[in-house]
Amino acid sequence: AADSTWFAPSESAFMINYRVDDLDALLAQLQAAGIEAIDGPQSHENGKFAWVMDPDGNKVELWEPMLWDDARRA
Fold first, then answer.
1. Global pTM?
2. What is the pLDDT of residue 14?
3. DSSP annotation string for 2-69
4. Distance separating alpha carbons of residues 53 and 24, to the nearest angstrom
5. pLDDT digits over 40-60, tens only?
6. Long-range pairs for 24-28 at CB < 8 Å and ≥24 separation?
7. Are 51 and 64 spatial neighbours (Cβ–Cβ below 8 Å)?
8. CA angle, 16 as apex, 21 and 69 as ends, to 5°?
9. What does each C-alpha distance from 34 to 20, 26, 60, 63 come to in angstroms?
10. 64 vs 1, 3, 4, 11, 56, CA distance in Å?
């Protein structure tokens, strides 16, 4: 919706999403470079998520997918 706040604090009408292999390691690398997560990490049934801002002020979602095994598929 036009009045959604999902992309905040970005003023853009979109969000960039990246699928990552190791969210915790990536967040540590970003933090070492002076980039703080604006939210997360959060764990959900589909994996772990965190959000950062890019240099242009766009919100970026980082997603580490849940690894599914036969027990979780049932």
1. 0.82
2. 85
3. TT--TTTT--SS--EEEE-S-HHHHHHHHHHTT---SEEEEEETTEEEEEEE-TTS-EEEEEEEPPP-
4. 17
5. 999 999 999 999 999 999 999
6. 24/48, 26/62, 27/62
7. no
8. 30
9. 19, 12, 16, 20
10. 26, 28, 24, 25, 23
CA distance 18 to 12: 17
Q: Provide the terminal-to-terminal Cα distance of the chain, rounded to the nearest Å.
A: 35
Helix, strand, or coil (residue 1): coil
The pair phi, psi for residue 6, each rounded to 5°, is: -60, -35
Digit-coded pLDDT (tens) for 6-32: 778 888 888 999 999 999 999 999 999
Tell the residue number behind the tokens 């292999």, with chain if given. Answer: 21
Place of tokens 């979109």: 14
